[in-house]
Write a structure and sequence with these properties.
By secondary structure, this protein is of the alpha/beta class. The chain is 26% helix and 25% strand. Bound molecules: alpha-L-arabinofuranose.
Amino acid sequence: MRSVSSLLAIMLFLGTAWARDAIEVGVDTAHPGPKLDRHVFGQFAEDLGTGLYGGIWVGRDSPIPNTRGIRNDVVAALKELHVPVVRWPGGCFADEYHWQDGIGPAAARRPQPNYNWGGVLESNQFGTDEFMDFAQQIGTEAYISVNVGSGTVKEAADWMQYMTADAGSAWGQQRAANGHPAPYRVAMLGLGNESWDCGGHMSAAEYGFRLKLYARFVHNWNKEQRMQRVAVGPGGPKTEDYAESVMKIWHDNADWDWDLEGMSLHSYTVGKWPPSWPATHFGESDYARSLAETLKMDGLIRTNSAIMDRYDPQKKISLVVDEWGAWLAPTPGSPSGFLQQQNSQRDAVLAALNLNIFSRHADRVRNANIAQMVNVLQAMILTDGPKMILTPTYHVFRLYVPFQDAAILPVKYAAGSYSVGDFNLPRVDVIAARTQDGKIAVAITNVDAGQPATVEVDLGKVTAKSAVGETLAAAKVDAVNSFDSPKTVVPKRVIVPVQAGRVTLTVPPASVTVLTTQ
Ligand code: AHR
């Protein structure tokens, strides 16, 4: 048996070895960059599978504790994330949604089959007023996608009147009769969804024609809320011309009496279609493959930003990444079209890498919505009847709350490399920002699944005595929280002294750490 002193010597040696390999990160606190808009931490809740029904809406008579039909546990968990905006009702669903089916007394709602998502019957019990109630309960803004595919301009204009006009107008009166006299606020309006695909298989020119009509005639009547109109932008391959077309229409018609404030970009980490990458029981090679794929988000944003810059060098129009995340093989036995998947530590790292990419493009990417919020794709929350679990991705979004509306600070470091087979990745990924209350926040992702990383962060002239935060790590990259074991992947508190403006810490393999100076 080794003596305690020799063990200590080995530990000291390892400590020195790590320290020698330490990654030096310089944070330039004197030159803050653009604000990382809190809307980059937005969510997406489509009428799909159990994303709404079961996940958010259980109905007023449910034994699951609820407020006006909306489950209390989910609301409480989401409040912790300070969700800035929620996109609803789709997605592909939006282009088949007829909002008048979902207003008024419960018995008068008109059930419709959900063509896109398993053909199940949509009861329409969760409609506009329920969504607005949900948004108010979690304290978020509404991002409404109108039906450009199978709807009409008038239907969309009437919907906006129902939501935002005062009670003197016909649809405002109807809203008041349904129990909501005060106009709602709509912060963002999506003018269609994936019009190159499920939104109607339109060419860029065909969509451009409709875009002009919807942008011109679908008005926001609530003057207390500035509303951003978001055009459909590119998504998969062969849709790049959407960016060019949307931006040209906007640029060439600056004298018209309508405007645009955003163009969307959709990009999933999916590999080949149909999605088959495992959500559970995978190894380091799958882990590295998913992360290599997800890092392509940076190139996609660069390509589309370059197109936007040609028409809009002042960056008036936001690139709205309103669908992103891991789209994996569905949970075995789950209903077809429900897009249910587990969520692992790998997905937590994947989420952090994407948030970091958005932060590096904060001047153009001012909105993003992860797909999706509850029970669908890379979800924050999974529910099963009365049970609810928080996923590793949820924890990343909570750790990143200090970055909402924070000023991005330039960072300099040599990331090193982490290679698995053909996949070469940066070993670490770091961002820093000055928070709204003047602290410095640093997020460190150790991408390397095999080795811890020692990071020395130079914060310059700070008076802070310590940096406090949390680390999200797990024993394995495919570790998940399950209904039987809901706390397998949970963050641990970290407190590190700040000495002469420097913070040194060793972070575990495949982990996400966020620290804020105190
Ligand atoms: O998020 C699931 C689906 O992915 C959305 O409905 C659609 O817009 C995209 O293809």
